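REQUEST ID: PR-0412
SUBMITTED BY: lab tech R.K.
PRIORITY: routine
TASK: structure prediction, single protein chain
INPUT:
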Amino acid sequence: MSDSNGLKRTIDQVVEDEHSDQVNDQQVVEDKPKEQTRLENNNDISKQQQKRRGQRLFGVVLGTLNKFNSENTQRQEQARNRQAIEAKLQKRLDEEKSAIQASLLKDQEERSRIKQQQQQDLDQKRIQMVHLHQQRLACYLTTTSTSPPLKYLPKVLLPHQKQCIDDQISQAAKATTESVAQTLNHPSSPLSRHNSKSPEPAD
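STATUS: complete
OUTPUT:
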């Protein structure tokens, strides 16, 4: 009787062990897909993280490029503005320089014209004084026996003396006319060109 009970327990234990083994095998089979799923999920998560990381890196690189392009464009714009300002300043300097040179040239020409006119007026006055002096001297006779010659006018003129004085006056008037004409044709000619020769001394 006891042997039967022991055998029964042994059979029951074997059955239980077999059942337990089946349960364990089933659990292993069930756990395997879960582990694979977890690994796949981890791979998906890793891929998503890598993708997001790549997108972030791309965004950083793109932002850096955009910033560089923006700064480069800004520098180019500043350079163009600086060149435009420098060109305007250079143009203004050139205009002011040209205006100053034109003003200096105009002043120089005006001073030269005034100086030339003053010189012409002075020469004309000198010529007039010389001619007036010659015309006055033409009314006198000149000695031939003295050195230097002397001018004199007798109280009573002899016919040949009167003729000599008339000739001297005529020569002085002719010399004045020629000198005036020469002055009009050559305003800058020296005073020596306007002087006429003294009349011949009379006997």
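NOTES: The first strand starts at residue 141 and ends at 142.
REVIEWED BY: pending
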